[in-house]
Structures are given as structure tokens and as C-alpha cells.
Amino acid sequence: MDNDAKLRPLYLGKILYERTDEETFLTTNELIRMLKEEYGISSHRQTIATEIELLKDFGMDIKCVRGRQNRYYLVSREFDLAELKLIIDAVDACKFISRRESKKLSAKLIKLAGNGHAEDLKRNGSVEGRVRTTNEKTCLIIDAVNTAINTKKRIAFRYYTYDAKKKKILKHDGMPYVLSPYELIWDGDRYYILGWSDWHDALRTFRVDRISDVPMILDVKSVKKPSDFNSARFVGTNYRMFAGETKDVTLLCDNDTMDSMVDRFGEKVKTELVDEDHFRLKAEVADSHVFYAWIFGFGKKVKIEGPEDMKAAYRKMLKDAQV
User: Fold this and answer.
1) How many CA atoms, within 13 angstroms, populate the side-chain half-sphere of residue 17?
2) Same structural domain for residues 101 and 151?
């Protein structure tokens, strides 16, 4: 079998995938012409019919409208248009993906719908004003972390922060952190690695977009997860991944804050009516300044009823913030 015969069904499938759908057909003659003009491969009517049957056996959902000129089109794809629109919107909105990487990914996703629907996938939402990472290696970093999680290996990476002049400064005196990664967590428009840090000797989170380069996967087994490890609980009790001692807090809330409380704690959070204007909420949270800042955002509508040490810490934070 010559190379043309081997490549013909591959290029035929490519043409049908990229250029046909339920509204766009290609005739046998058009397929013969495209194969010749674009790929230099000769074919004839019976060859097209035979190799389309081969592609159907392979799993491509190709339909034929029979007539003097048979017309072929690809019916179903891995994602329909509505699903692709949602995925593209999510990619466009990701703050942890650079603008250039976001555009590259969106362009690849649009191709999954075929050329005929590229215009349909032009999005009308605006995310241009969002502050995005400038880290161009985010996707490679995530891939390396996933590999390490799946193979139960530790990773080593350097991590940076910004100084007062907006200059990137490597933390830990430029020495790599060694981490046993357990999970990748998307929280508050950011992507985090949750794992056991050798240097801290504790569970820690690191922002993916603040890792300076692709992590090195070490030939060292990960530290076993703590027996009480529960990522859902960790995310639910920590605000923007700022960890702290977990405590049971009681909040007195105005009724119109219930949407925000359900968004934060879920529908199963413990609440009880206090009077016609207020309800009481009890939840487990991490005692951190980020939690207090979240409470402050509600003004007088949310008050900390207990415990007393958290009430005192909140009052102190408000006092210290006064100019």
C-alpha cells in the first residue's frame, strides 16, 4: 500500500471534521477535489465511499444524504456548541492563565466545533478589565503537578512575591520549596497546590501562578496524607487559602445576607431564625485576618457573637486599622 492510500482516510476524516456539520455538507466530487488540491492525493468515487465507511467503523459519526451526488457531513462531536461556549468562557475568565495562553486555548477549543461554527463561538462577555497573571508557564506547571500527584512524588520549586517596588523576589532566600502535592484547588479565581511542605512540616498551599518555573519532579515518594486530611473541609474553612486555627464561630446576620452565607458555607450550614430581621449561623472557619476582612465587608449586617477570643481579635484588627 502506497503512502497516499494510507493517508487518504486520515485527510478525509480531517476535512469532514473541520468543514462539515448538520448544516454544511460536502459532495463526493468536492471531497475528491479537496484531497487533490490540498494534499496532492488522488481518489475516485468508490474510494471515497469505502473510506467513509472505514471512518464510521473507526467511530466518526458521519451521515450520507444519498442522491446523484452523495453529500456527507459529521453529525456529532465530543462537545456541542453550548458546552464549548461554557468552557471558552471559563478559560477567558481565568485569572491564573495569562492573556496570551487564554487566547491560544480558546482558539484550540473553537476548532473542536469545526470551521463552520467559529463565528458562533465568538463570545460577547467582557473580561478585559480583569487583572491576570503574567506567568506564561501556568499550564506546564499544572501538568507537572498533576504528574507528581498521580505518581505520588514530591516536587521542588521556587516561589516569588512582590516587594514595594513591584519587583519579583524569590521567597525562602531563593531556595526551592519541597512539597508533597495532594490536590490542585481552584478558589477565589486562583489556582492553588495543597500539600505537605517539608520546610514548614505542615499542610500548606501555594498559588500556581506564583511558582517561578516548572516544578522539578523528584524521585522521592510523597509524604503520606495526614489521617484527618479532608480537602473539602480545608477549602470550606479557609478563606482565599489563608490557613489558621479552625474554630467554631457564631454569627448574627441580617436576613438579606443569607445568599452570601449560602455561597460561602453551602446550603447545609446550620442556621436558625432569631427574629423577623435576623438569623444566627454556626460554622467552622479558619481564624485569620482574611475571615475578619470578609465579615467587615458586610458592615453592621454581620456580627461575631462568639467565641470571645475571635470577637476580641476582630475588635483589635479594626482598631489597628484606624489611621
Assistant:
1) 16
2) no
